[in-house]
Design goal:
385 residues, alpha/beta, Rossmann fold, four-stranded antiparallel beta sheet, 11 helices
Length: 385
Amino acid sequence: MRILRAKIQMLCAAALLATALGITAPARCQEAPPGPLQPKPGVQPERTPPLPADMQKRAIRVRVNEVVAPVTVRNAKGEMLLDLAQANFHVFDNGVEQKIEHFDLGGDPLSIVLAVETSSHIEPMMPAVRRTGLVFAETVMALTSEVSVVGYDDTVDLVAKFTTDPDDVQNSIQNLRIGTSGMRLYDAMARSITLLEQRPAARRRILVVIGEAQDTGSENTLGEVLRMAHLANVSIYTIGLSTAMADLRAKPPPPRPTLGPPGTFPVPTPNGQPQTPELERQMQESADLMPLIIWLLKTGKNAIGPNSLEIASKSTGGLHMSVKKDASIEKAVDEIGGEIHAQYTLGYRPPGDEPSGYHEIKVTVDRPNVSVRTRPGYYLAPPES
């Protein structure tokens, strides 16, 4: 991780140098709304007033103008590859190859919202959550990010507005306070996505959630949250906190159907990986979520039973990690930071007459024996009648 972090810092420094020297940005950045992309440390960016509730509901029906697909590429050893060029990538929308109009590796400025559960249910784990402040500021925020912090229990509260000052972010996390017993997870995610939507379009948008995979009392549904995230090009990373009370409240997961007779491998494995029972199990578990994700996007409803945090991450191409020990929380935050600053970003504009419904995204790489992870697709709601 130290070698990777050094590479990431070099990439971030190069991006900052290019900005300082006035090097022309790609077309995607030229079309962004006016305003500084990299404020000076400590300067508080002006916050745009939140959208009215009725506009937020209508926003999920807007057509997609640009699709942003963050891509993580790893070799057979699980190491992230940082030496690929744009020509190595191919992106397909419903099976049709698209022209890549934006390409970047770790240099795009980031807008990140950290949403943290402050419910009394996680009180035993809150000291460990507070200790992640330093790791978050160093590895997730890094040099090209602005961060806002949201806390949620029975209410959703803006703890810190967007800032580029790592000390402010660290202090906001370290000073989180335990609240009531509510867990309005979906409302917190919806508000976080709304905050990200208001940032300049040239910035990558990341939502990091630390909390239990439980929701009580939210006005928004998981399906609505996923729609918002898809249309705003938000990648969701989640760290699921597992406590004794959470385990008691959680419903047992439904049995996963098998995809073929025992001893057979009906699902193709990633390039270069041998067919093993463990790999097949992992692939079946991953594949099982896709029909549910598409159903949630189409209906805008909630899912009962499956891990909502895992669903949100898989739907947007992010990572989900479950933690039970205090030290694991900091490790998970560090892993998220290492990945988001070492991702390739591909941007393309789908045709204006694309049909409504779910669009599958597939990214391939001209490099043998690698695994590729990106957002699996996006959803276009039918136009208003």
